[in-house]
Design goal:
Layout (H helix, E strand, L loop, with lengths): L10 H31 L6 H22 L19 E3 L6 E3 L3 E3 L4 E3 L4 E3 L4 E3 L4 H27 L12 H4 L1 H39 L16
Helix pairs in contact: 1-2, 1-3, 1-5, 2-3, 3-5
The structure holds zinc ion (2 copies).
The site of one zinc ion (ZN) has 5 residues, from loops.
């Protein structure tokens, strides 16, 4: 697996990725300020829960950066085609380069990608052979962080004891309900979207591996790729 740095010049992709970073920042700053720290200071929750929250958030950001800036499997201009595999290669009529049959040309990235799954605007990168695992990690950590934040938001209103000592002059305290409603909206949207995506990804992987087990002779590239679009 090659982990070369890859950068896609696409303003639309930058906007989408910027939105994801904004959602991450919004939750990482405001949830601890409104929910975690006040409850910790009043002894309602142990400090380890705050450390876990930041830990998952960092894993999530690292997974985003790695999935975005890792080469998804760009083909070189003069690929060395292994002897005996020539029949599994073809010419791309867009970039005029040879590629294995399960590769696809991405018009946003402007080149062919080995085992391309889809182009994801949210990471501003293609999801292909070399970053598919990183993309799945990102989905997993995002699910975890979103569920964790939503659980605390729920407990804040319906389970924990009310916070007694609050500085009512603080902006976040005065606008707490609006901030938490927006956080819940973002969290539920992310959770529903990524659960759907995660599900189709897992079904695609399981189906592909079953095909390989049942048809081992075709595993070099005769069958079509499981196309999973976000
Ligand atoms: Zn191409
Ligand atoms: Zn692409």
């Amino acid at each position: 697996m090659g982990l070369r740095i890859h950068f896609v010049v696409d303003p639309h992709g930058w906007c989408c990725m910027g939105l994801i970073v904004f959602v991450w920042l919004y939750n990482i700053v405001l949830i601890p300020k409104i929910v975690l720290f006040p409850h910790y200071e009043e002894g309602h929750i142990p400090g380890i829960l705050i450390i876990i929250f930041y830990g998952i958030a960092i894993f999530c950001l690292v997974a985003l950066v790695r999935a975005s800036f890792t080469d998804p499997g760009r083909l070189p201009e003069n690929p060395k085609i292994p002897h005996g595999e020539r029949e599994f290669w073809e010419l791309c009529n867009k970039c005029n380069l040879m590629r294995p049959k399960r590769s696809h040309h991405c018009s946003r990235c402007g080149h062919c990608v080995r085992r391309m799954d889809h182009h994801c605007p949210w990471i501003n990168n293609c999801v292909g052979e070399d970053n598919h695992w990183l993309f799945l990690q990102l989905c997993f950590y995002t699910e975890l962080l979103t569920s964790y934040a939503l659980m605390f938001s729920f407990c804040h209103y319906y389970y924990f004891l009310p916070v007694k000592k609050r500085n009512l002059d603080l902006f976040v305290v005065r606008h707490e309900l609006a901030i938490m409603r927006l956080a819940a909206f973002m969290g539920i949207t992310m959770l529903v979207g990524i659960t759907g995506l995660f599900y189709t990804q897992l079904i695609g992987i399981i189906t592909y591996h079953w095909k390989r087990v049942l048809q081992p002779k075709k595993s070099l590239g005769l069958e079509s790729a499981p196309q999973i679009f976000a």
